[in-house]
Amino acid sequence: MSPPAAVDERTLTRRIVALALPALVVLAAEPLYVLVDTAVVGHLGRVPLAAVAVGGTVMSVAVWFGTLMAYGTTGRAARRFGAGDRAAAVAEGAQATWLALAVGVLLVLLAQLFADPIARALAGDPATAEAAAGWLRIAALGAPGLLLAAAGNGWMRGVQDTRRPLIFVLGANVLSAVLCPLLVYTAGWGLTGSAVANVVAQSLSGGLFLLALLRQRAPLRPSPAIIVRQLVLGRDLLIRGAAFQACWLSATAVAARFGVAALGAHQIGLQLWFFCALALDAVAIAAQSLVGAALGASDGAGARAVARRVTAVGAVAGLAFAALAAAGAGVVPSLFTGDPAVLEQAAIVWPWFVGMLPFAGVVYALDGVLIGAGDVGFLRTMTLAAALFGFLPAIWLAYALDWGLAGVWCGLALFMLIRLVFIVIRWRGTHWTVLGVTR
């Protein structure tokens, strides 16, 4: 439940860590598997690595839907849990599951229809486009499972159950991490083996979350009223997510124009960034749960105490990740490829990657605070402004002036800096501390 207003800071830190550590494993499992997949495919050559870069960027749309579904469900479920109504919190998960199934099936159909034109639009090389389209058609079959897992994660985080999500997600991804090299190399399936391993992980994880919901014996009939309220909240998260997707897709498209080696290096850097970002987001998950529960229990002082503490924890975590990344500059890229041209391009990306991590720790922690508070309208507007007036102009200018990957990652850094300034200003105000279950 929510922390009292005068809670001891050490006790609050322990509670944040108790929620964040299992969430860290859950958040890191999927991108860690993607890193394994990237390393396995990277040793097949430049074209397969570039194909996974393109296909993986498109599949990030499904991850985006899953993230906003999980975050929206966590905030709503946490408020109801904080108000003492666990059944209503689980009911949020049941309705989110219906949304997950509908969106997942739609994404599968769209991938089968439009894989070729999307791959051609993003890839600068015909061989890369063909390989990416084939990978995407298979990998998209895992979208329903991925979204079911996101919905399940959402309501379980809301009721502060982080143990079962850890088991479900970690078990599925460990299995697929073992399958990936077996299918790619031993079975000789190449890129197809990579895509099949993705589908196995996502489908198994989604099935386990669905089974957990059925065991709650919650009402499963669709409730249009709850679904509509979730969609209203999801609208702002969707628009915010669209801004992120425009940034990632544009970054991949521009990187592709600088050559196959640049695109391969960008894929390595971007997947490592996603891994670190989602790991840092573990603090944000704890913030969503604790802030939502505190506000649901009408404890504004407790919510602000959580916000202060997670900001400090996020900053420390960001610095720690930056130190690790800096120490691994000469080693980590070579784990993904032996191509000298790709490694040369990765060296350009690395200083930007390391430099953004400390700021990311603060931004992601405060993202969690505001999502838990239901203040997603502000997050929507802030992210759109950072994308439209910072990142997108910078990245297309980098393309026009031939700045290479340094220009692409400079745009990403500008995007992060603008978000940092605006979210700190919001955090220091009082607009986000709305009490009760009104959001």
Task: Write a compact overview of the structure shown.
This protein has 13 helices and no strands.
Number of helices: 13
Order of helices and strands: HHHHHHHHHHHHH
Report the strand count.
0
The radius of gyration computed from the alpha-carbon positions, rounded to a whole number of angstroms, is 21 Å
Would you tell me the structural class of the helices and strands? mainly alpha
- Tally of individual domains: 1
Q: In what range is the share of β-strand residues? A: under 5%
Low-confidence stretches: 1-6
Major sheet: none
Helix content percent band: over 70%
**Rough outline:** globular
Ends apart, CA distance between termini? 18 Å
Overall pLDDT score: 86
Which descriptors would you attach to this protein?
439 residues, mainly alpha, 13 helices
Commentary on this structure:
With 439 residues, this protein is mainly alpha-helical. It has one domain (9-428). It has 13 helices and no strands. The chain has helices at 9-42, 46-82, 86-122, 126-139, 143-158, 163-186, 191-215, 224-257, 260-296, 300-327, 340-372, 376-400, 404-428. Helix 3 (86-122) runs antiparallel to helix 5 and helix 6 (163-186) runs antiparallel to helix 7 (191-215). The protein is globular. It starts with 8 loop residues before the first helix and ends in an 11-residue tail after the last helix. The model is unreliable at 1-6 (pLDDT under 50). It is found in: Cell membrane. Keywords: Cell membrane, Membrane, Transmembrane, Transmembrane helix, Transport. The chain crosses the membrane at residues 16-36, 48-71, 96-115, 135-155, 167-189, 195-214, 237-260, 272-298, 310-336, 348-366, 378-399, 405-425.
